[in-house]
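Table 4 source record.
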Amino acid sequence: MCILYNYTVGKKNILIYGSTGWLGRMTISYLKRHVDCKLTLVASRKKEFKVDGSIFESISPSEFVEIKEQSFDHYFNFAFLTQEKIKILGGKEYEKVTNSIISTESPFFENNKINNAFLSSSGAVYWQDTTKNNLYTSQKLEQEKRFIKNSLKGDTNYLVGRIFGIIGNNYDFSKNYAFTDFIHLGMNSQPITINSTKRVVRSYLYFENLLKFIIYGGKKNITFDAWDRNYDLIELAEIIGNIFNVEVIVKPEYLKSTILNEYISKRSSFDDYASFSITQEDIRLAIFNGNTLS
């Protein structure tokens, strides 16, 4: 079945900026299964792409800024460059591109009525004034500031969610994340080996919990850390190992290490806003509910 952005008719009018990345695809997958809606999808260029076997089409940023006099129930902003792109593009080009991404949404706010808006931010914003501070940190903070300013100016209810680690479907094996690496090994009936010499702990979010909160939660005008629970790398490996019935091999150096590599929230968990958590069944559903990227 072919579903193009301007042909899908439904009750909710929703626009996703950054629709072809992992967060955008997970959102489309969820909306397709649970929400009757009309979707407008924006990406870095006009293209067709698949999510869960259905064909969607994105519009370009130049078409995005031309949208006028419409009313949107929800606006999701997932558009940005990962910090890995700093080395690839160089600092000046990275700043130029991310500034363009940040500024592109301003005409959309000015020329349309947006009832609810969500910006996906990052736990990396807490690196400001630390040795980890980089251009990604400062640009994400600038994006948050501009997004909130645009929302308040347009009388839009906004949410800014700072994300650390994600568990969700439509994952991409080309990305170097522990979650996807473990799944890839499990799917190929290979043992999951933890090679790190440092203990690794991450604050993980089950992404569908965030979408439920955005669409049904009723909260507005807050910036929050979007996470459900902390996982040591061993815990996550053992859960995925159990799902695929493969061995988990942990090197002794990892178990003995007193050095902690952590990327965790120092704030209260998502449970402060909604009664969400991550279960092994959630992880199983994230693995098998929805296709990987195509």
